[in-house]
Structures are given as C-alpha cells and as structure tokens.
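Lab notebook, bench 4. The sequencing result for the construct came back, and we need a structural model before the next group meeting so we can plan mutations. Quick request posted to the team channel:

Model the 3D structure of this chain.
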Amino acid sequence: MMLKNILIGIVVPLSILLPIGVFIFKYKYADRAMKTIFYYLIAAGITNLTAILLIEMGMRNLPLLHVYTVVETLFFLSYFKSIFNSQKISRYLNLLMVVFPIICIINFLFLQDIFSFNTYTRPLEALIITAICLFYLYRSGFVEDLMKKPVSWVNIGIMAYFPAASIIFLMSNYFVFKSYNKELNTLVWNIHSLLVLIMYLAFTKAFTLIPKTKKVNGAAK
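Done. Here's the predicted structure in token form:
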C-alpha cells in the first residue's frame, strides 16, 4: 500500500519535472507546437500542486478539476492548430475552443455538482483529443523519419493516455463515491497514474528531438 501511495502521490506528480527540465534547454529552438505542450505541462504542474495543497488544508479539490478540464482542452486544441496546415481545420478547432468551455460551464452549473467528478465533460474531452489526434495521423501518413519528429512522440503520449483514461473519467464517481472495493479503486487510479507517466515520458522524448536550429523568417539559422 505504501508503494502504491508513493506512485500516485509522489513519483507521477514529480515526473512532470522531467519533460519540463529537458525543454528548458531546448526552449529557444522550439516551435509553437512544442512550446504549447511545454506551457500545458507548466499549467498541469501548477494544478497538481494546488490540488495537493487543497487536500493538505482539508479542502475538496474537485472544483479545480472542472476548471482544469477546460484549460487542458484549450492547450491541446491550440497544439493541434499549430500542427495542422489547414485553415479550414483551424476554423473548426477555433469553434471547439469556444463551444467546449460553454459545455463545461453548463455541466457544472446545471448537470453535475462541482464537488463531484465531471464524468460528462472529462470523457468528452478525452474523446475529442483522441479523435483529432487520430485524424492528424491519418492525414499525415507514414514517412521514413516519423519517429525522429518531436510531434510524433507528443502524439504517442496523447494516444497512450487519453483513449484509456476516457473510461476512467467516465467511471470516476463510481470508483470514488459508490464502489466499496478499495482494491479496485486503488488499481484504477494506479493505472491512471501509469498512463500519465507514459505520456510525460513520451513528451520528454519529443523534447529531446527538437533540432538545435532556430528559424528566422522561415529560414533555418
């Protein structure tokens, strides 16, 4: 049990420092897509720290998850905007960036209590991100140096985390508030932690592949 608590409470939250630390040395060479993922990691780290502090203060942190769902989605939609070379797709993504936060607001105002898991909007977020990522993979095709591209490893991280996590998001209230099977509850959240860790490691790999070339007016320097 102690090992499981360490995994959820210490190892995974601190693992976010690995991609952040690697990126700091590549910041000036990074394009918009990689910087967006970096800023997402910063936001995720701050959110995790805030959630831990709220628990230590004896306060419930689930309202933070409702806000974080919006923030996380906007970051990933912004990331996809920067890797799709299509104005038409960008317009659809812009629409999603407006519609999804509205859906989230409607959800916590009228549908689900803000002190419960947002089991409607969180799985929806995961499905949206997964679908867009799959669409990008379909459009981009396969090239010889696919695994040498930073964006490929970011997408691997996305596909490793969000599809499986969507099921956990959907059942969160049951696992935490209704299930009396503590072992199942612990197992589920350890699986979630492992998925997060895999995503962070994939992002770390992506950042290591950022070439040390800086573009000026479209030309490599």
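The first helix runs from residue 2 to 15.
Will bring this to the meeting.
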